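Run log // design_07
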């Protein structure tokens, strides 16, 4: 199995970004969409990431492209994650305006949703992230998408795009997600928290240990 990388999202404090990096996470995520429980400003995001080797991912929801681009530059993002109803055309335009990668979050409730989203965005983004659908918020709710149903169509993502999975991941189930879905990246936020935006070092350690175990034995199930 190729190395599965980890993104720890919903960072609000530099100490948690440092924890993520020290634990072996490759990516750190900050919520730059307004109004969420983990939302921070671009300037705060730059401070959170400062001095860490994490690849910087910023999450946006239906932001105007001009303001989004300015925010991404201020936070020095390397990846922009679009988590709303952004069009493929908007994603492609944003992709052309910087050196960052563009990931599009999909929240499939069925295999048909997944395949339709893949077909719609495949040519305009660098990566796809699957998250659980919830009526409460576009992300960060701990909801799962239908893993087993989507797993049957995993080969549709042919390796030309980064494939990440999120939504309801935690130490006790991340090995199963890796086994079923064979993602490039697993993305965790609420599953390693004491409270929104406050990461628990012990749970982060347990999550990373479960990912390492799954890398060694991709058929282990939890």
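design_07 sequence
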């Amino acid at each position: 199995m190729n190395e599965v990388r980890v993104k720890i999202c919903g960072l609000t404090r530099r100490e948690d970004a440092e924890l993520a990096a020290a634990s072996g996470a490759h990516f750190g995520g900050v919520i730059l969409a307004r109004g969420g429980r983990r939302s921070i400003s671009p300037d705060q995001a730059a401070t959170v990431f400062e001095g860490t080797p994490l690849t910087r991912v910023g999450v946006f929801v239906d932001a105007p492209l001009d303001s989004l681009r300015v925010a991404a530059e201020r936070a020095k993002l390397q990846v922009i994650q679009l988590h709303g109803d952004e069009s493929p055309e908007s994603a492609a335009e944003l992709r052309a305006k910087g050196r960052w990668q563009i990931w599009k979050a999909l929240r499939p409730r069925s295999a048909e949703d997944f395949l339709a989203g893949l077909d719609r965005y495949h040519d305009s983004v660098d990566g796809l992230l699957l998250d659980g659908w919830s009526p409460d918020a576009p992300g960060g709710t701990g909801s799962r998408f239908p893993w087993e149903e989507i797993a049957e169509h995993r080969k549709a993502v042919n390796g030309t795009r980064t494939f990440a999975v999120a939504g309801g991941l935690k130490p006790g189930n991340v090995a199963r997600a890796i086994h079923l879905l064979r993602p490039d990246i697993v993305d965790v936020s609420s599953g390693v928290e004491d409270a929104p935006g406050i990461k628990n070092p012990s749970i982060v350690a347990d999550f990373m240990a479960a990912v390492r175990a799954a890398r060694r034995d991709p058929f282990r199930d939890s």
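The CA atoms of residues 142 and 168 lie 4 Å apart.
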